[in-house]
Design brief:
By secondary structure, the chain is mainly beta. It is built from two helices and twelve strands; from the N terminus they run E-E-E-E-E-E-E-E-H-E-E-E-E-H. It has a domain of 75 residues: Sandwich (Immunoglobulin-like). The protein is elongated and about 90 Å long. Helices cover 4% and strands 17% of the residues. A hairpin with a 3-residue loop joins strand 10 and strand 11. The strands form five sheets. It has a three-stranded antiparallel sheet, with no helix packed on it. A three-stranded antiparallel sheet has the order 8-11-10, with no helix packed on it. A two-stranded parallel ribbon has the order 1-3.
Length: 372
């Protein structure tokens, strides 16, 4: 049998980077494919130098018949790697895979490990500077996946895709749908378990979820469910439910007291910056005594409560409700993106499930490496 040969590929030179907005990682450049044939001297490292060779020995000529390269580690124990790539170059790739066929179920990189502590594919970029990628996936197909993670075990704590960042400004996982039209999703989560969560965020030290959108846009939609607060009690954790409204209101609460039958209550200036007090707003008064009062005047900076009858120095509380600034016209708006949601319209579930099957990628088939 012929001895296996090693194929060595040198990465190409550096490339420029376009600037991106602060806080958004730059889109990865499309990597150029490696040179089809190696050039220069063979460099395998001290522990991998072929027998009967010297540091100046040139590699033997590669066979003309090309073989597909697959990574596979079939050991049943130990820290194994189906495919391991390492690059310390300022513009290198630890692993680069390119499946250029225009049809068929292809894989730019396919890794398989059967070890209980193995890695199907492991990528690392240990440069201290520069825009580096431990693993970079790229797909131009209309139904392609740049990176696909598949955890087939039916038990245990498994991860289809696991992201970890130790940087003070890092992102463990970043999703970006940069198409300028269409109903796109930066990060999409789904679950088939009746007790599962499509998305879950937990932190033992920091905050949970932060959502930022332009003014006038929707920050959070919940279809077919409620928005709850969860609190601990002696009888276990309990839910508290959010009160919904037909318009976008902000509210403030406070206390006051009549003096000689009248009270002028100033509106909190910070709260006043968040609402439109030039439009009519609500003031609900609750007195603490057997008296009658009414709101006699409402202005952008204050409102006035007067005595009708009873104790002229009675204490009271109030609730002020005003329209959120910038959202004044919104009332029971249409939500066309949810018209096909099966949780709202159960009769559309079959159609929705068929569409979801098209979106879900097939599990990779386990392949055996070819013997040369």
């Amino acid at each position: 049998m012929r001895r296996p040969y090693r194929r060595v590929v040198w990465a190409s030179g550096g490339r420029s980077r376009a600037t991106t907005p602060v806080g958004v990682p730059p889109s990865p450049p499309t990597p150029s494919p490696p040179s089809p044939e190696p050039s220069g001297e063979l460099s395998l490292g001290p522990s991998l130098t072929p027998r009967n060779s010297s540091p100046h020995t040139h590699p033997r000529k590669l066979p003309t018949r090309r073989k597909r390269r697959r990574g596979r580690s079939s050991a049943s124990s130990g820290t194994t790697y189906g495919l391991y790539g390492l690059s310390k170059s300022t513009s290198g790739r630890g692993v680069y895979g390119n499946a250029s066929a225009t049809s068929g179920v292809t894989y730019g990189v396919y890794g398989l490990s059967r070890s209980s502590d193995g890695r199907g594919v492991y990528g690392t970029a240990d440069a201290a500077t520069g825009t580096t990628y431990g693993l970079y996936g790229y797909s131009k197909s209309t139904s392609g996946r740049g990176v696909y993670g598949y955890a087939s075990a039916t038990s245990g704590t498994t991860y289809g895709v696991y992201g970890l960042s130790k940087s003070t400004k890092g992102r463990g996982v970043f999703g970006n749908a940069n198409a300028t039209s269409g109903n796109t999703t930066g990060v999409y989560g789904a679950t088939s378990s009746p007790n599962g969560w499509a998305g879950k965020f937990t932190s033992a030290y920091g905050n949970g979820v932060y959502i930022s959108v332009p003014a006038g846009k929707t920050g959070l939609n919940v279809a077919g469910g409620s928005k709850n607060g969860i609190v601990p009690t002696a009888d276990g954790a309990r839910l508290l439910y959010t009160e919904e409204a037909t318009e976008v209101w902000f509210a403030d609460y406070g206390f006051g007291k009549l003096q000689d039958g009248v009270a002028v209550v100033p509106i909190d200036p910070i709260f006043a910056q968040t609402v439109n007090l030039d439009e009519p707003y609500y003031v609900f008064v609750q007195v603490y005594g057997d008296v009658g009062v009414y709101v006699s005047d409402r202005r952008p900076g204050q409102f006035e409560v007067q005595l009708r009858e009873g104790d002229a120095n009675v204490a009271f509380s109030y609730r002020l409700v005003a329209r959120r600034l910038g959202y004044e016209p919104q009332r029971l708006e249409r939500a066309p993106w949810a018209d096909d949601d099966p949780n709202l319209y159960p009769e559309k579930r079959a159609e929705w499930e068929a569409q979801e099957e098209l979106m879900e990628p097939l599990a990779p088939e386990e392949v055996e490496p070819e013997i040369e």
